[in-house]
């Protein structure tokens, strides 16, 4: 008997985008399928818009349940949906993205042939660049992927993920942070189960201007960098003794986060702050290739600074 899949869509003040995301769920070729939508305290006409989807979902042969909760961010909204999900398998979609119709069916058929994997992920495309699937095939490494998630050799986008409900609950659902909750969840999940890579590009990412990842521009990036490093600290403190945890991999991930942070500082022209962060990164992470490559960027940025110039994009 086919396993029930729960498609989870959390939304916040984007009723005009729901046709794209929810419509793509209804067009899935896989059944049985249920749809859970969580309105994360939008305070607009989102609840009224969602009511129209109840009959549409029934007409498409699936149950749809819509919930409204106080605003708490994407992580708590997904955990709320997880607690109400009936499906043995869970799939996650942001309200501004969409799936190709065969997305769930393709993944689940492949998972049936690899029952050891409690999670699977696919490639994706950005809207308008459908001929450029991401990530590259060499970044679709699967199996026990904690080390390759840390190194970037596995890139499992959350909107492509299918995970067994019991495992998602076992690892504790999603964090309460506004940023990096998906990555931290996947790190925990990678300690609990092998991942399965599906090479097809089956999700379309449609980044919009009010995306959380773009809030407040470069100054916002600096705050997100600090949040990510702090969240990683908490993860290491909690799971540092886990048998599948690798300290060297966690240091490499920390170095990758510092690499982005230092580039953001250089882009803003804050050269001395960038050098201080680089020295701190070397102390915390040891010699790492991306940190070594930053040395020349720091030198060029310093020289440009003498003439009132900045690196255009480090």
Q: In brief, what are we looking at here?
A:
46% of the residues lie in helices and 16% in strands. It is α/β, with parallel strands linked by helices.
Question: What are the key terms here?
Answer:
Spore Coat Polysaccharide Biosynthesis Protein SpsA, Chain A, 314 residues, 2 domains, 8 strands, alpha/beta
Structure, described:
The chain has 314 residues and is an alpha/beta fold. It folds into two domains: 5-205, Spore Coat Polysaccharide Biosynthesis Protein SpsA, Chain A, CATH 3.90.550; 216-306, no CATH class. Helix content is 46%, strand content 16%. The protein is built from eleven helices and eight strands. The chain has an eight-stranded mixed β-sheet with strand order 3-2-1-4-7-6-8-5, with helices on both faces. Helix 8 packs antiparallel against helix 9 (247-267), helix 9 (247-267) packs parallel to helix 11 (289-306) and helix 10 (271-285) packs antiparallel against helix 11. The chain starts with a strand and ends in an 8-residue tail after the last helix. The mean pLDDT is 94.
CATH architecture of the largest domain: Alpha-Beta Complex
Q: Using the coordinates above, name the CATH class of the largest domain.
A: Alpha Beta
What's the number of helices?
11
Amino- and carboxy-terminal Cα gap: 53 Å
The overall average pLDDT, rounded, is 94
Q: Structural class of the secondary elements?
A: alpha/beta
Order of helical and strand elements: EHEHEHEEHEHEHHEHHHH
Question: What is the count of β-strands?
Answer: 8
Our count of domains comes out at 2
Q: Name the poorly predicted regions.
A: none
Relative helix content: 40-55%
CATH topology of the largest domain: Spore Coat Polysaccharide Biosynthesis Protein SpsA, Chain A
Provide the β-strand percentage band: 15-25%
């Amino acid at each position: 008997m086919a396993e029930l899949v729960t498609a989870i869509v959390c939304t916040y003040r984007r009723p005009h985008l729901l046709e794209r995301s929810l419509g793509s769920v209804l067009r899935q070729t896989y059944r049985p399928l249920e749809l859970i939508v969580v309105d994360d305290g939008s305070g607009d006409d989102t609840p009224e818009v969602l009511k129209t989807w109840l009959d549409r979902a029934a007409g498409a042969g699936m149950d749809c349940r819509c919930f409204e909760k106080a605003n708490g961010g994407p992580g708590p909204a997904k955990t709320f949906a997880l607690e109400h999900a009936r499906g043995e398998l869970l799939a996650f979609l942001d309200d501004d993205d969409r799936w190709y119709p065969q997305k769930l069916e393709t993944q689940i058929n492949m998972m049936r042939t690899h029952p050891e994997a409690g999670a699977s992920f696919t490639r994706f495309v950005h809207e308008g660049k459908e001929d450029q699937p991401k990530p590259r095939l060499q970044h679709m490494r699967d199996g026990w992927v904690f080390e390759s998630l840390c190194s970037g050799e596995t890139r499992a986008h959350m909107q492509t993920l299918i995970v067994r409900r019991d495992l998602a609950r076992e690892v504790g659902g999603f964090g309460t942070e506004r940023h990096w909750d998906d990555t931290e969840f996947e790190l925990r999940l990678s300690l609990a189960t092998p991942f399965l890579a599906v090479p097809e590009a089956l999700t379309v990412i449609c980044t919009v201007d009010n995306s959380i990842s773009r809030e407040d521009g470069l100054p916002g990036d600096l705050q997100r960098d600090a949040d990510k490093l702090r969240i990683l600290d908490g993860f290491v403190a909690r799971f540092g003794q886990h048998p599948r945890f690798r300290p060297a991999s966690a240091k490499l991930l920390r170095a990758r986060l510092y690499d982005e942070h230092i580039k953001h500082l250089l882009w803003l022209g804050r050269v001395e702050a960038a050098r201080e962060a680089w020295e701190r990164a070397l102390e915390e992470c040891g010699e790492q290739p991306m940190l070594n490559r930053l040395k020349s960027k720091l030198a060029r940025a310093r020289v440009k600074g003498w003439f009132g110039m900045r690196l255009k994009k480090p």
